[in-house]
Amino acid sequence: MFLGPSDVPLNLIAPVRSSLVALPRHVMHQQTKVLHLCFVLWFSSMGGLVPLLSLLCCLTFLLQEAAPATFTITNSCDYTVWPGILSNAGAPPPSTTGFALPPGQSLAVTVASVWSGRIWGRTLCSTDSSGTFSCATADCGSGAAECSGRGAAPPATLAEFTLAGGTGGDDFYDVSLVDGFNVPMLVAPDAPAPAPANGSCQATGCPADVNRACPAELRVAAPPPAAATAAVACRSACEAFAEAEYCCSGAYGSPAACAPTPYSRFFKAACPAAYSYAYDDATSTFTCAAAGGGYDVVFCPGTSRLKSGGNPEAAGLPPSNPTMEFSGDAGSSLVTSRNTVVALLMAIVSLTSMRWC
Questions:
Q1: What is the residue range of 211's domain?
Q2: Which Gene3D superfamilies match (predicted)?
Q3: In whole angstroms, what is the distance from residue 234 CA to residue 236 CA?
């Protein structure tokens, strides 16, 4: 006898389905259909070991699909960085949108398995006498450490993500200097699927300290009492000059019309894997079928340390490193809900009891 979804006892599905409510609505609907299918296959069988193993495999797939993604954010700089996180419109918010990250520290931030947004680092942050929090670079303007839906003011090095947005649920990610540069950054999948199913799954970023080589007309000077010539950020030509040629707007608003400029070539030479201008897609966008959806985001990756009187510069401009491998402790890439595991086990026990009791 073949059973349909309406024939499956709701008291068995409800505990498992309740563990999916944190997912986006369309993802939860898809996972609920898979859940129904798991139980339909079980109830339509004659029982025994093979159907039980099939049910376990089905539920394991469901559990993996429902797991959130984890960004392990690490500060390898010699100064405190205040990461900021912004979800794109329609994407659920992360577990935090901003925090202080002292030198040598890491923090795991969770987002939904289907998510898009950006991560950046703020520097030289403080709270004034009125209690307002602000940063000299990449400030989000919220007046607090949490950015709460606000983006980074340029110049800012940006890590951009679209999780499960590609064919077959692949991720897209990049590091962008289109809005300028303020801190070296690396992005790397922490547990990619085995090749050839993993897309490119390469590390990307801008490990060089572009501030030290920034052209004078793009340089953002450090606030007092630092030296007037010290730079804490490097503006994009678009922000500095607001001309269509540099902003890829107006008559230059297409890939064919907007070509690299001397300024974008400067950024590209320093960081070949990062976006240097709006249409720099060919060498700057990466994909990955991530197992567990985890990524490492590292500030000041693999560079020597340089303490310079409060000026947040991580190192001199190093030679380009085409591999950019991160050798830190990535931690676990799969964040699994304890409630989900318990609910799945309870459902299996209940089903087994009904079949053989």
A1: 69-299
A2: Thaumatin
A3: 7
